[in-house]
């Protein structure tokens, strides 16, 4: 089973901690975590799943060859070791903010 975790890019410290805590606990109970891998809750939830040593899925808002946001390149690299990074876009696509919203909707349907 999968669980999509989304939230604010500009979340509070408490929100980031809870996103990580929820995803870690869910992953430890054999749920696959799906996020945007973005700043805020998405990245925090991805880190929580990684702390549980479980694979996770990032639905990227940009082309598969363009980590978005660029500041999370290490997070994307870590997920790629055991999980999956997917995109609804072809390679070489940079992400305008409208694509981030679409990627979150896609991950919620996963």
Based on Cα principal axes, name the global outline.
globular
N→C terminal distance: 10 Å
Number of helices: 4
Largest sheet composition? 4 strands, parallel
**Count of β-strands:** 4
| Fraction in helix | 40-55%
With strands numbered from the N-terminus, the spatial order across the biggest sheet is 1-2-3-4
Sketch the topology as an H/E string, one letter per element: EHEHEHEH
Percent strand: 5-15%
Mean pLDDT: 83
Contiguous low-pLDDT stretches (5 residues minimum) are none
Give a quick rundown of the structure.
This protein has 110 residues and is an alpha/beta fold.
Which helices and strands appear, and what pairs or packs with what?
Layout: E1 2-4, H1 13-28, E2 32-35, H2 41-51, E3 56-60, H3 73-82, E4 84-87, H4 97-109
Parallel strand pairs: 1-2, 2-3, 3-4
Helix pairs in contact: 1-2
Could you explain how this protein is built, in words?
With 110 residues, the protein is of the alpha/beta class. Helices cover 45% and strands 15% of the residues. The protein is built from four helices and four strands. The chain has a four-stranded parallel beta sheet with strand order 1-2-3-4. Helix 1 packs parallel to helix 2. The chain starts with a strand and ends with a helix.
